[in-house]
């Protein structure tokens, strides 16, 4: 939500020194010098090509910590354990060979950017995330089934923005029975993690590694926000802040009544300044919402209920 690229050295072309010869005395040609060793090229992608020098430097440091990261996350009490490849968000990271894929660089950079390129902090965040995913059994969680009548219309991935990023919709109002959605906080959190993981599956980590999110609160009032909703929102915010770094390009809260603007500002106390800057509160009504979203999403990609032309099935 940093490794300095290997410089490919151009082999120095050496030619045999041609001695001036005469029929009488011919000097032997000099032995050609051995070609310079060529460093293997650093795998690149459209995303890694945008890394700054400071980011490459930080990435190089973080890569060097990966064996220790693996041990701290998966085998903290086994001194003999040897680091093994692990997979996160569909990208396999081999601590012994972290330069094998540009996708690995993109994933690691998320942790660095989330911690302002402070390598130690990024390392700590990565360890905590790997432990959390292991404890939550995220790979199994994504295969769980949740009641269609409760969550069927609560989350949708539909269309892309003008930069090709997927757009994720969370519906917490309208036809969705919000009371039922939040009736079991544990269940909601597991569903919400699954929905996030499915949204991430739409990212290729080569050209796109972020998404737009739109949260719809149509018909929600201050009085309808109960203790379960507040607790679930707080826990979900904590999870995404700490374990899903730099996936959010922008987030829009739509159909938010003016008198509920305090909810939006409450996020400022729990989110980093960088994340908070990506949040946008939008009022009610198609024209108001369309005015906020159409600069980012083509009208053909925006659902009609938000002022676009698209007619998604199942909404």
Automatic annotation (TrEMBL):
Assigned keywords, A-Z: Membrane, Transport
Compartments where found: Membrane
Short name of any one Pfam family annotated for the protein: CRAL_TRIO
PROSITE patterns: CRAL_TRIO (PS50191)
GO cellular component: membrane
MF (Gene Ontology): lipid binding
Highest taxon in the source lineage: Eukaryota
Stretches assigned to the CRAL-TRIO domain: 138-314
Main location: membrane
Coiled-coil intervals: none
SUPFAM superfamilies linked: CRAL/TRIO domain, CRAL/TRIO N-terminal domain
Name of the protein this chain belongs to: CRAL-TRIO domain-containing protein
Organism field: Phlebiopsis gigantea (strain 11061_1 CR5-6) (White-rot fungus)
């Amino acid at each position: 939500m940093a490794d300095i690229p290997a410089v490919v050295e151009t082999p120095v072309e050496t030619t045999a020194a041609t001695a001036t010869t005469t029929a009488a005395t011919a000097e032997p040609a000099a032995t050609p010098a051995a070609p310079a060793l060529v460093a293997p090229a650093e795998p690149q992608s459209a995303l890694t090509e945008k890394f700054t020098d400071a980011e490459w430097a930080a990435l190089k440091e973080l890569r060097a910590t990966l064996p220790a990261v693996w041990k701290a996350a998966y085998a903290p009490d086994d001194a003999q354990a040897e680091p093994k490849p692990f997979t996160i968000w569909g990208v396999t990271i081999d601590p012994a060979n972290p330069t094998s894929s540009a996708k690995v660089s993109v994933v690691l950079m998320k942790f660095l950017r989330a911690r302002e390129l402070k390598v130690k902090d990024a390392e700590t965040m990565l360890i905590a995330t790997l432990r959390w995913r292991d404890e939550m059994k995220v790979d199994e969680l994504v295969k769980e089934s949740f009641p269609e009548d409760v969550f069927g219309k609560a989350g949708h991935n539909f269309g892309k923005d003008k930069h090709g990023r997927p757009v994720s919709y969370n519906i917490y109002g309208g036809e969705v029975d919000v009371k039922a959605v939040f009736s079991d906080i544990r269940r909601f959190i597991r569903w919400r993690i699954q929905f996030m993981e499915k949204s991430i599956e739409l990212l290729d980590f080569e050209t796109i590694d972020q998404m737009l999110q739109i949260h719809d609160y149509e018909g929600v009032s201050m009085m309808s926000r109960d203790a379960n909703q507040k607790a679930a929102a707080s826990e979900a915010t904590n999870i995404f802040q700490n374990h899903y770094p730099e996936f959010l390009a922008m987030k829009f809260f739509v159909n938010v009544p003016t008198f509920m603007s305090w909810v939006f500002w409450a996020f400022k106390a729990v989110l980093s300044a960088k994340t908070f800057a990506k949040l946008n509160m939008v009022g009610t009504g198609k024209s108001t919402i369309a005015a906020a979203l159409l600069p980012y999403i083509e009208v053909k990609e925006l659902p009609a209920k938000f002022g676009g032309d698209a007619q998604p099935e199942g909404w």
